[in-house]
Specification:
Length: about 550
């Protein structure tokens, strides 16, 4: 249990979990020795939010807004999270994608105060000792990254801490995991980004990346240290390069409570989008043919979960994989190609090589999913061909930040004459096309990972399987109403994020019970129990 804290005076105002700023009442000011340390006016939390919003909206660029919000989080957590929840459509793009991409690029330049926990190659042999420096003992969720593949921006080394911080703020906002139960970790193993190593303000180790067995041994020490220090914690792997991402999840998925959000979380949210899309197109899910542009960790994560969903629907392994084609820089992934990783080889087709457009014509997919990290790869020709092949083509441009999207929402709608069923990894505004206004929803992992984490922790599972992600995807798709689909949105309104997380968490709890992953008794009203345990950021 976290020990109770009883500071007074300036110590209260410097504790972000206790500080209420000008909202402290007269009685609290007397009791805590705050008179004279605050202006005499006692403000409500709403007045404080109005003040923050005014300052926020006067900023000229999003990175300045990000800095303001990070500062707020560092001094008054409840006000920060109340602001996020009450204005989530405005605030979330500022604390996560797309703004967090720029924040990570500039992390060393905008660094203000310590946040998160840094472990480096210099700490070999003493990681368990270092974890005792973290002030909280009841840690439930750890987001760890080595910063090698941050969004679509590549190797950002120690600057990747911004991703871990942002992801955990969404666990708290979206699923009510208490801030003191969240731990962002940057595993600094160096960077191969020479410009960063030479940057005078860079905060990480100025060496090339640790590789091979030495890297795996370092990570193993980290995992063992975490298991000993925080035995109830869920480990969320984030923004590892593809090879390490797959290697680490293969190593640990059956040993500890963990998942990789870039692989499995992306798979869950994209699968939910496909489920919802079939309600617009009228296709039976099991009849879908899917073509992926890109064969990295994100694309494979979606492909693997879609294959699992096909198999769950009654297909054989061979049938499921025949419906999923992967196209990378070398064209269609085929069986004759050498050097394929086992995960990729699973989807290799027994046919001649084809380029992207040739593969579209040959496969005639109802769904085209991009996870390339390369902007503009869904050309006008490709989108128009999808529209020729399907009355309502499903087009997911999942790469982020926004500048890396395979196509924009406007391009997808315009090139398909308004017939595309579109989703993207980064947010796009409304688009007017052929007399109709489309309001595409972002294919954002925040729809899945907070609820999945909440459900896994509540159910007391010891490992996370594909069955839990399949359950999460179905629950998320069920949250999309007819009005959203009519407007072209494949995901529910983010203003309902906590209700969505509760629905996902309930589905995860029920699936864990069915799959024999927990012996814990479930309450009669699971959703009420989940809601009751959520962190409530009010005074």
């Amino acid at each position: 249990m976290t020990q109770a804290r009883h500071p007074v005076g300036m110590a209260v105002l410097h504790d972000p979990g206790l500080n209420k700023g000008t909202a402290f009442t007269e009685e609290e000011r007397d009791r805590l020795g705050l008179h004279g340390l605050l202006p005499p006016a006692v403000c409500t939390q709403q007045v404080q939010m109005d003040r923050v919003l005014g300052n926020l909206r006067h900023k000229e660029c999003d990175i300045d807004r990000y800095i303001l919000l990070q500062s707020l989080q560092g001094r008054n957590e409840r006000l920060f999270y109340r602001l996020v929840l009450d204005h989530i459509t405005e605030i979330m793009p500022l604390i996560y994608t797309p703004t967090v991409g720029q924040a990570c690029r500039e992390f060393a330049d905008i660094y203000r105060e310590p946040k998160g926990f840094y472990i480096s190659t210099n700490d070999r042999g003493r990681m368990r000792e270092l974890l005792d420096n973290w002030p909280e003992r009841d840690v439930r969720v750890i987001v760890v990254t080595d910063g090698e593949r941050v969004l679509g921006l590549g190797d950002l080394g120690a600057n990747g801490m911004g991703i871990a911080i942002g992801k955990l703020s969404l666990y708290t906002a979206g699923a009510g995991i208490a801030p003191e139960q969240c731990l962002p970790v940057l595993l600094d193993v160096g960077t191969d980004n020479r410009s960063l190593r030479e940057h005078p303000l860079y905060l990480g180790i100025r060496s090339e990346r640790l590789r091979g067995e030495a890297y795996l041994e370092l990570f193993e020490e980290f995992v063992q240290a975490v298991q000993d220090a925080f035995p109830r914690a869920l480990l969320h792997f984030e923004d590892f390069a593809s090879d390490n991402a797959h290697r680490l999840i293969d190593t640990y998925r059956d040993r500890i409570l963990c998942f990789n959000d870039d692989i499995q979380g992306t798979g869950g949210v994209a699968l939910a989008g496909l489920y919802a899309a079939t309600r617009i197109t009228g296709d039976d899910f099991k009849d879908l043919r899917v073509l992926f542009l890109g064969a990295g960790s994100a694309a494979l994560g979606v492909a693997e979960l879609v294959a699992a969903a096909f198999i769950e629907a009654g297909m054989s392994e061979t049938q499921a994989c025949s419906r999923i084609w992967l196209v990378d820089r070398g064209g269609l992934v085929v069986q004759g190609r050498t050097g394929l990783a086992p995960r990729v080889r699973r989807f290799a087709q027994d046919r001649e090589p084809l380029d992207f457009i040739e593969a579209l014509r040959a496969h005639a997919p109802q769904a085209l999913i991009g996870a390339t990290g390369a902007p503009g790869t869904f050309s006008e020709q490709a989108v128009k061909l999808m529209a020729e092949l399907n009355p309502r083509p499903i087009i997911f441009a999942l790469s982020n930040p926004t500048a890396n999207a395979e196509c924009t929402a406007e391009q997808a709608y315009q090139w398909s004459s308004g017939r595309a069923v579109f989703a993207s990894g980064s947010p796009f505004g409304p688009v007017n096309c052929n007399g109709k206004t489309f309001r595409p929803a972002q294919c954002n992992n925040v729809y899945v990972f907070p609820g999945l984490g909440l459900g896994a922790l509540s159910a007391g599972v010891e490992r996370i399987t594909d069955a839990l992600f399949l359950a999460a995807a179905r629950a998320l798709a069920d949250q999309v109403d007819a009005a959203s689909l009519e407007a072209g949105a494949l995901y529910p309104d983010l203003t309902r994020v906590r209700r969505i997380s509760i629905a996902v968490a309930r589905a995860v709890c029920e699936a864990a019970r069915r799959e024999g992953l927990t012996n814990r008794e479930m309450p009669a009203d699971i959703e009420a129990e989940l809601a009751a345990q959520m962190y409530d950021p009010v005074y």
